Amino acid sequence: MAAAARRSCTNNMPISLPFIIASMTCLLFLFPGIDAQSCASYTFSNNQAYASCASLPRLGATLHYNYTAETNTVSVAFRAPLSKAGWVAWGLNPNGTGMVGSQAVVAFQHSNGSLVAYPTLLDSYAPSMAPAEPEELGFPVSDVAAEHIGGKEMVVYATVALPAGKGSKFNHVWQQGSSVVDDVPAAHPTSGDNILSTGTVDFSE
Ligand SMILES: *[C@@H]1O[C@H](CO)[C@@H](O)[C@H](O)[C@H]1NC(C)=O
Ligand SMILES: *[C@@H]1O[C@H](CO)[C@@H](O)[C@H](O)[C@H]1NC(C)=O
Ligand SMILES: *[C@@H]1O[C@H](CO)[C@@H](O)[C@H](O)[C@H]1NC(C)=O
């Protein structure tokens, strides 16, 4: 009875379940940085959906993104663990690798109680972390916002107009620091994962 049911099932279905599982396993091996399961399973508070996401290899961070090739823009949601104190940041380095030369979005809780999030220029190893004026930006960033979830995770949202002529693959950096002094993010640790949190992201994947 069971065997007959199974046979009729496989006869009627040109693509078998083992084939689907094998295909999905292949995809996971092809794109090791892309964790389709957590993309699909993470629910943002206002039900935003992002087409892709990557579990970043350091600091427990995740980048969710929607890339639009026609307009060369990407909408991102960067998530990183954070208790009440401290800050998180994510940035692109269009002309090099690592921190210096990156343009980032940073988020933290201001002393007045509000969450603040804005673009900033990482122009040295001791950047000001001050908000960048629009005319200072190497590429426009809009819709910057932050959300602190459950007292343990910060999410930074942004829409980035990607630098032209560079395709969809970029060097990126991300960071998390444990203190904010006078409403300015203070230096992050300069060892371990905090100096290894760099990589590449291809927004078309
Ligand atoms: C991402 O793209 C999908 C599909 O086009 C769309 O439904 C969704 O609203 C987009 N999300 C954001 C945050 O733009
Ligand atoms: C807190 O300070 C930030 C940055 O100056 C400002 O944008 C925000 O409106 C302030 N929030 C409150 C509640 O005063
Ligand atoms: C990257 O280099 C290009 C060409 O030299 C320059 O126009 C652009 O301003 C640089 N971008 C940033 C963000 O520094």
TrEMBL record:
Which cellular compartments is it found in?
Answer: Membrane
State the residue spans of region: Disordered: 185-205
Q: Which GO terms describe its cellular component?
A: membrane
Keywords, comma-separated and alphabetical: Membrane, Signal, Transport
Name the InterPro entries on file.
Answer: AIR12_DOMON, DOMON_domain
Q: Which domain of life is it from?
A: Eukaryota
Record domain DOMON: where: 59-177
PANTHER family from the xrefs?
CYTOCHROME B561 AND DOMON DOMAIN-CONTAINING PROTEIN (PTHR23130), OS08G0335600 PROTEIN (PTHR23130:SF159)
Q: What is this protein called?
A: DOMON domain-containing protein
Species source reads: Eleusine coracana subsp. coracana
Write the lineage as a comma-separated list: Eukaryota, Viridiplantae, Streptophyta, Embryophyta, Tracheophyta
